[in-house]
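sry for the spam today, last one i promise. struct tokens for design, 217 residues
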């Protein structure tokens, strides 16, 4: 928790959370999906993967917001299945009607949404194992706590990023102001010098001579 709280980069937070949570719940696979809408056509973007090589997912389509995922996204909490393949909602969506070819087998299933205190969904944290009945209520509590800490860390990282961007914008604006003033000062010195020389030439010769004599005296 301390390591997550100290991190200010959203990508590193998500990677660390996924790896540590997968290890803690003894899952074969842990995934963090970013959500792009929670409606029937909502899509997911793979952000972090633990337990299996990322290359296995390169040629696979990202999951859609099926009824199973939608329950997790809309209702919150942790959803655990001893054997997800026996759930009546499983395999009802084409074109794969289950998992696509080459996808790791998932029977034990546990997932939770990661959401801010205001209820905004930041992502979906999912764990799987090829054997049934691998996750317990104790694992649920672990995942619930991790999801809450992750949401807080991501929200803090977002605020830090916004503050950093504002500070950078102010620094750049101040730099542009200083550059403008320096340029303005340079441009003003040149015409003033020319004007002074012209005025010197326009002064009467006797006045000019008196000035010179006064300086010599």
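last one done:
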């Amino acid at each position: 928790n301390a390591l997550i709280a100290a991190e200010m980069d959203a990508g590193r937070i998500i990677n660390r959370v996924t790896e540590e949570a997968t290890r803690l719940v003894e899952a074969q696979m842990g995934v963090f999906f970013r959500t792009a809408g929670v409606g029937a056509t909502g899509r997911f973007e793979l952000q972090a993967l633990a337990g299996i090589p990322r290359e296995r997912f390169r040629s696979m389509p990202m999951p859609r917001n099926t009824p199973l995922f939608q329950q997790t996204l809309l209702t919150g909490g942790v959803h655990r299945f001893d054997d997800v393949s026996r759930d009546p909602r499983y395999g009802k969506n084409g074109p794969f009607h289950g998992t696509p070819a080459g996808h790791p087998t998932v029977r034990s299933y546990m997932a939770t949404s990661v959401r801010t205190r205001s209820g905004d969904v930041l992502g979906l944290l999912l764990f799987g194992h090829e054997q049934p009945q691998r996750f317990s209520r104790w694992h649920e509590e672990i995942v619930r706590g991790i999801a809450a800490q992750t949401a807080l860390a991501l929200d803090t990282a977002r605020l830090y990023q916004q503050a950093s961007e504002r500070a950078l914008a102010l620094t750049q604006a101040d730099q542009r102001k200083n550059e403008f003033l320096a340029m303005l000062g340079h441009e003003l010195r040149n015409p003033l010098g020319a004007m002074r020389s012209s005025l010197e030439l326009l002064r009467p010769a006797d006045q000019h001579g008196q000035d010179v004599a006064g300086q010599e005296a």
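The chain has five helices and five strands. ok im logging off now
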